[in-house]
């Protein structure tokens, strides 16, 4: 279940992907067509859904997930 947004504040498109209890931050490279992993984190719990949102006046995206506890 991917979620697309600007999560690291760099004004670049990024992708957050979850698989079970693993959360990954990915960034596509427009020049090579490859996707690079920026961060992989194991969380305490199981991520069942993700949704990107931005706080009013904010410059980077945030993630909201259900049924998860971050370690």
Automatic annotation (TrEMBL):
The protein's matches in Gene3D superfamilies, at most eight in alphabetical order, are given as:
YVTN repeat-like/Quinoprotein amine dehydrogenase
Q: Where is the RSE1/DDB1/CPSF1 first beta-propeller domain?
A: 5-59
This chain's protein is named RSE1/DDB1/CPSF1 first beta-propeller domain-containing protein
The organism encoding this protein is Sinocyclocheilus grahami (Dianchi golden-line fish)
